[in-house]
Amino acid sequence: MKEPILRVRDLYYVYGNGQIGLDGVNIDINEGEKIAVIGSNGAGKSTFFLNVNGVLKAESGEISYRGTMINKKNLKELRKNIGIVFQDADNQIIASTVRAEVAFGPMNLKLPKEEVIKRVDEALTYMDIMDFKDRPPHYLSGGEKKKVSIADIIAMKSEIIIFDEPTVALDPLNAEMLEVVLSKLSREEKTILISTHDVDFAYRWAERIIVFCQGKIIADGSPLEIFQNEEVLKRSNLKQPMLLNVYESLVEKHLIADEKIYPRSIEVFQKMIQAIK
Amino acid sequence: MREIILFVLGVLAVVVLLMAVVGQHHSQDGKHHHHKIGHKHGEGFVIDMHAYASKIRGWNPTFKVSLATVLLILCIALNNPYVSVAVLIAMAYLTMVKGGLSVNEYLSVLMIPIAFILLGTLAIAIEFSFDPIGQYHLHCGFFYIYTSQEKLKEMIFLILKVFAAVSALQMMTLSTPSSEIISVMRKAHVPKLIIELMNIIYRYIFILLDVYSKMKNSADSRQGYCDFKTSCYTFGGIAGNMLIISLKKANAYYDAMEARCYDGEIIFLEEEKKFEINQIIMAVIFVAVLFLLWGFTK
Fold first, then answer.
1. CB of A203 within 8 A of CB of A243?
2. What is the largest CA-CA distance in chain A?
3. Which of A46, A170, A186, B260 qualifies as a cystine partner to A174, CB 3.0-4.6 A?
């Protein structure tokens, strides 16, 4: 088996007030995976992300990136290769023009100026926001700010990109834009982790789902395994995805043959229904 | 650095609160009287928007800042009404014709310091006495207010001088976004700490204003401003909450910065805008003309 790109072993993290944030997290993440991280509020998803990125310092545990153990010295290597798109773009955007904002990461990597400008232009083109590169962030809309915060991470050329609840503040059109960007990133073999409460989105998009509950990983597997496991769903206060639910009801009533081909998108499901008639 | 951000946000929370309150007052004024001078978001906001919309935003910021500084110094040092008038006209030309700002907007921005200027200069022109002396005097009960043509002239020249100096600075602020002015200051070797503070403060003002307006609206929708006493309580509650939120935001920001390899020094990409030789030549000619004016009318 291939060496995982990120390996986390026995990660413990305790908040300043003594509350346990992470309670022994073990996980291997392989290159190019599309992972949805789900779990109720306060289950430890964001804490996990910040730990993996080296922003929060764990009490104990090991993180290794491509086989190299992460310690204080090569922490920067970790941060360079793992980018987080934060939930609230307003908590991430620091500079007062879009261009300077996207350049913040590359500038911190101490790249030569030409390279920084090249990367910024690439990232802006990638997110299709070249038009407002000179605009200040405080005159952008929510969706535009989100695009800027994603461009921030693209400019750093991180191999693993973490999205912390990206769909929360977006309107349907912008959510669609986000999915387009996600599939574009996947084609480039980026490893993507997304925390979300949207089970339909997780079911549709993810290849693998990790479920957090009270600082622990309680389940890790394919979307089907997770969403058919009622105990896990109950413990993490989640519901079954709509499409899976509909499909199972139809199978139960013998309206479609039980071929165990689970449709993951509406389009596939519609084709399936049309094939019956 | 975390402490600095915390501190800045804490202080800013207070400043923004005050600004917002003043701004709100102002906007209500505007609503009642329907006069054109008066804005919805407080003056700082408007100037910022004009700066981004200005057609001469593309000019090299170092050029604009230096020109404004030189003219400011000349206005004060030469102390000559003709020079003042020349600067006043030239700056109005640059801001309105070249920059594309409308006359109304320009005047409303230029009039911001009018109260200070009038109060300050009146004190020079007018004097008090118990006897009817001076060229012109006005009897006010047991004392007289008196002045003279000389004094009035002095006052008008002073007003001209101040307006010329202000218009030179307005030309700069109405065409150069804060981030560019800060980058010029960095080039002028202003200490790093101050530059970083200025950058952070500029960004956070808008975030805190946003937070304030959200909290105010939600309080308003729950009858938080129904009478004076309740308004005071609500204001206090919002002030307290702003502090807590600014502390939380400071932490979130610090995490986000660290996640992008921040290591103790904030460096932003600054755009290089080319110096236009024509502009520099024009500026030099203008300054030379000012000196000539001064020389002839001394």
1. yes
2. 64
3. A170
In the block, residue with structure tokens 């007030």:
A17
Residue at B189: amino acid letter:
H
Give the global pTM: 0.81
Residue A87 lies in a domain: yes
Quickly count: other Cβ atoms within 10 Å of residue B94's Cβ: 24
**Residue A21 three-state SS:** strand
Which residue type occupies A231? Answer: E
Statement to judge: residues A225 and A181 lie in one domain: yes
Interatomic CA distance for residues B298 and B293, integer angstroms: 8
Q: Which residues on chain A are in Cβ contact (under 8 Å) with B263?
A: 76, 108
Nearest chain B residue (CA) to A97: B179
Specify whether the CB–CB gap between A100 and A137 falls below 8 A.
no
Q: What is the pLDDT of residues A212-234, one digit of tens each?
A: 999 999 999 999 889 989 899 98
User: For position A232, which CATH number holds?
Assistant: 3.40.50.300
Mutation for A interface: B201, B206, B260, B270, most A CBs within 10 A: B260
Distance CA(A224)–CA(A207), nearest Å, equals 10
Looking at residue B27, what is its pLDDT?
45
Chain A partners within 8 Å of B203 (Cβ): 93-96, 137-138
**Smallest Cα–Cα separation from A199: which of A264, A273, A272, A270?**
A264
Nearest to A96 among B199, B253, B262 (CB): B199
Mutate to test the interface with A, among B261, B265, B266, B272 (most CBs of A within 10 A): B261
DSSP code for A156: T
Helix, strand, coil percent values for chain B (each to nearest 5): 75, 5, 20
Nearest CB to B253 within list A80, A94, A152:
A94
Q: Which of A94, A116, A152 sits opposite B269 (nearest CB)?
A: A116
**Contact between B269 and A107 using a beta-carbon 8 Å cutoff:** yes
- In this structure, of B19-28, B194-203, B213-222, the range with the lowest mean pLDDT score is B19-28
Task: Give residue for tokens 């207010």.
Answer: B145
Q: Which residues contact A65 (CB under 8 A, 6 or more apart)?
A: A5, A6, A77, A78, A81, A82
Q: How many CB pairs under 8 A join A and B?
A: 95
Residues A262 and A217 in one domain: no
Residues B138-196 pLDDT 10s:
888 888 888 888 888 889 999 999 999 999 999 999 999 888 999 999 999 999 999 98
Ranges of residues in chain A whose predicted pLDDT is under 70: 1, 277
Q: Range of A261's domain?
A: 241-277
A13 lies in the same domain as A46: yes
